[in-house]
DNA sequence: GAAATTATTTAGATTTGTCTAACTTTTATT
DNA sequence: AATAAAAGTTAGACAAATCTAAATAATTTC
């Protein structure tokens, strides 16, 4: 199956929406891809013809087994390139998503497997997301929850859900990276903001919007 | 100036043909790009509108200064990616052209300059071709001539003109690489074939077609 | 220098991916 | 249940890149 760049981007976005439990709607996918609902309907028909999605009009979209497999291969490429950019070319984690968005469409099995070897076959990308293997399999992920739901005090940052520049730059500024250990000092019920402390640095407060997008595990 | 993949491929091919002294004709460019003359005429109008080429109907095509600059930037990207594939991912020189043909279109100044640094700012690619700098300037090339025209006996291979799989695999099989030192034993006038010797290995004969595509310098 | 051949351009079609505007279906509200 | 609002689809258009077939220009051959 040889997919166009546009088709690959759709498949990847559908996977992302499905992953977030949301049922995939025409409008939601249009928003995700920064396009119009009419365009989504058109593409949905095409992807259905290629048996990559199940789609009946007015009934929403879901990936078939083939579609899911395709998605995982694109995600593998995306995340491996992100690793390359960060580990080898010293890009920061907020810069890589955009470039990987293009690199992920370079089609060569050999290239991507060599790249993986060159990087030491990493299993998570610079944002803490797991990298599928050459067969498109995801290793079982470590249990992680979002910081706003964590109920223990001492936590380690394992991933970031939102990859926007805005959030990633904010986290960098605050000294929050993958692997950062933090301690919850206080939770304020009023606005669900959280006061946290990193090592010996002075404590500071982060909003619910931020804490929802930081994934952590107890430590 | 934001160019499409198709436009970039045209610009690069025009540069290549101009470089080879040939005047750039519609049919010649169509052949080079594996497309049809009618398509070339269409694209020629578009590139003229963008002021990248001079073109008047029936009068052939030539790059403007802007077009030449654009070409050199694409060539820089192509050749740097080739270096990456060979030096870092251990691809062989006959495998890299095709993949670089896609990678060259990834648009990010920062990416390509970081890549260049990562590779140690190489000045020649795996086929012996010079790599333009970030400003699109080519360093002065070492004087080289094709093996069929060389008049001295002891020579060093500096580049290969033809990048086809067929030739590159042949050269690899014969032990001819960039930097290989060879000695001309005999030139046969009948078919312009040449008998050569590499180090202590037994001499062998290569055809004019091959020797025309091997660039050398006296040593 | 006229005829034949070759090169180039144009006209009209096609595919892919997108859009707007109009229409239809579904869902929410009263 | 009727109506209003939101969500989704269709119809028709457009731009990019390509093609085939037909027309035209340039070049070569005799
Ligand atoms: Mn992409
Ligand atoms: Mn990522
Ligand atoms: Mn290319
Ligand atoms: Mn090369």
UniProtKB/TrEMBL annotation, chains A, B:
Q: Which InterPro entries match?
A: DtxR_MntR_Metal-Reg, Fe-transptr_FeoA-like, Fe_dep_repressor, Fe_dep_repressor_sf, FeoA_core_dom, HTH_DTXR, Iron_dep_repressor, WH-like_DNA-bd_sf
**Which GO MF term does the entry hold, naming one?**
DNA binding
Tagged with keyword DNA-binding:
yes
Coiled-coil ranges per UniProt: none
- A Pfam family matched in the record: Fe_dep_repress
Which residue intervals define the domain HTH dtxR-type in the entry? Answer: 1-64
Cite the entry's keywords alphabetically: DNA-binding, Transcription, Transcription regulation
- Which family is this sequence assigned to? Belongs to the DtxR/MntR family.
Could you tell me what this protein does?
A: In the presence of manganese, represses expression of mntH and mntS. Up-regulates expression of mntP.
Q: Which PANTHER family match?
A: IRON (METAL) DEPENDENT REPRESSOR, DTXR FAMILY, IRON-DEPENDENT TRANSCRIPTIONAL REGULATOR
What is the official name of this protein in its record?
A: Transcriptional regulator MntR
């Amino acid at each position: 199956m040889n997919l166009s760049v546009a088709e690959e981007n759709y498949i990847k976005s559908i996977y992302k929406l499905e992953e977030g439990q949301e049922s995939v709607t025409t409008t939601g996918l249009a928003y995700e891809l920064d396009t119009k609902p009419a365009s989504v309907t058109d593409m949905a028909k095409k992807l259905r013809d290629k048996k990559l999605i199940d789609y009946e009009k007015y009934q929403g979209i879901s990936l078939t087994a083939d579609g899911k497999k395709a998605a995982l291969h694109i995600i593998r490429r995306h995340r491996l390139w992100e690793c390359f950019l960060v580990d080898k070319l010293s890009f920061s984690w907020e810069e890589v998503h955009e470039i990987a968005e293009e690199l992920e469409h370079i089609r060569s099995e050999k290239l991507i497997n060599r790249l993986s070897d060159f990087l030491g076959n990493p299993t998570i990308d610079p944002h803490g997301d797991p990298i599928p293997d050459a067969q498109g399999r995801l290793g079982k992920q470590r249990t992680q929850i979002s910081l706003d739901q964590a109920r223990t005090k001492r936590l380690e940052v394992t991933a970031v859900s939102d990859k926007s520049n805005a959030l990633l730059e904010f986290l960098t500024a605050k000294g929050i990276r993958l692997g950062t250990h933090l301690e919850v000092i206080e939770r304020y019920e009023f606005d669900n903001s959280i006061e946290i402390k990193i090592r010996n640095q002075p404590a500071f407060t982060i909003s619910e919007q931020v804490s929802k997008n930081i994934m952590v595990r107890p430590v």
